[in-house]
Amino acid sequence: MTTPSSRALLRIGIPVLKVAVALGLVIWIARRVDFAEGWAAVRTLSATTIWVSVFLLLFQALLSAWRWCLLSEMIGQRLKMTGAMKLFMQSLFYNQALPSPIPGDAARIFGAVKYGLTVGEATLGVVMDRILTLFGLAVVALIGLIIMRAFYGHDFPIPYLAELTALGVTGSIASALVFIWRRHFFIRFLPAKLHALSAALQAFITHRRMVGIFLLTLVIHGLSVVSLEILVLGLGLPLDWGQAAAAFPPVLLIAMVPISVGGWGLREGGMIISLAVFGIGTTDAATLSVVFGLLQLVVGLAGGVFVLSRPHSGKIKAL
User: Which residue ranges run through the membrane (predicted)?
Assistant: First the structure.
């Protein structure tokens, strides 16, 4: 059992460690990058390219908020899009400004409570949204790894990444099927605090909209790939749409590993490794990743407008 002092140390130590990892990776990569060449490439980007990429990321946030609304409806009470989008943008701001996703999730939970949901409904909605986001990204990454191996004859240069991703996806699907078949058996062994989550998972898996929400999740992740390819075209890099579909999803999955801040360093390293398979150099790959990360940062910081605005006085009622 951890003492209060050890818990406080963890709360401070983990974010500091994440910042250190991000800085270490960025510095290590920066030493291998030609900044003059990278800056020259950035200057070739047109305003149209940048605005289209930002629009796609904002549209991604809109679809993510909509999915959160649908998941909340399955659990108890659906949020209206106006409030959900406001809370989601606030969470993006916290996720970009702070070295942990927890404040962003907390902002969504407590914001949803103020708008009429119970604490349990709000918490389950955010947890389910997180689970679906991770699983959907794993599926998209697995598709990319299969494309890379089957159509281009290349394997991702991280050993067994395809096998591990396939194992995770297959294991998740198998667990869901077994859970549907014998949920009552598992309930007896789960802590009481997880009973509500198990009921929410059951409701999602057996819901008539489950397939549609999962496809929506794939579209949400696909928008990141499209936004990256738009930047690729703007930078004049030799990477077509099929290669983008193969190269980018595994990088986005690597960037989700919670050992950095906002994926910085991990995303750049993964991009360099992935695009090297298609003959793109370190500087070009790192430049692409940094520009994409900065645009994500811009969209996230735009959520600060909602944080600074006066809280909405009304409640989000059930539709």
Answer: 12-30, 50-71, 131-152, 158-180, 211-237, 244-266, 286-308
- Burial profile 216-226: b = 16 or more Cβ within 10 angstroms, e = fewer: bbebbbbbbbb
Higher pLDDT, 316 or 94: 94
Q: Give the end-to-end CA distance of the chain in Å, rounded to a whole number.
A: 44
Taking only the tens place, the pLDDT of each residue in 125-182 is 898 899 999 999 999 999 999 999 999 888 888 888 999 999 999 999 988 888 777 7
According to DSSP H, which parts of the chain are helical? Answer: 4-30, 35-43, 47-75, 81-97, 102-114, 119-150, 161-181, 183-187, 195-205, 210-235, 241-255, 266-276, 282-302, 304-308
Q: Which two structure tokens, joined as six digits, stand for 54?
A: 């930002």
**Contacts for 186 with CB less than 8 Å, ≥ 6 apart:** 179, 198
Assess contact for 133 and 65: CB atoms under 8 A: no
Sign of CA dihedral 269, 274, 277, 282: negative
Q: Of 238 and 207, which is predicted with more confidence?
A: 238
Better pLDDT: 316 or 244:
244
Mean pLDDT for 276-291 is: 95
- For CA atoms 305, 309, 311, 312, the dihedral sign is negative
Residue 314 banded pLDDT, cuts 50, 70, 90:
very low
CB 260 within 8 A of CB 29: no
Q: Please state, for a pLDDT cut of 90, what percent of the chain lies above it.
A: 48
Check: CB of residue 138 under 8 Å from CB of residue 129.
no
Euclidean distance between CA atoms 13 and 6, whole angstroms: 10
Backbone dihedral angles phi then psi of residue 275, each to the nearest 5 degrees: -75, -20
Burial of 113 (0-12, 13-18, 19+ CB in 10 A): middle
Q: How many CB atoms lie within 10 A of CB 1?
A: 3
pLDDT tens-digit readout, 268-281: 999 999 999 999 99
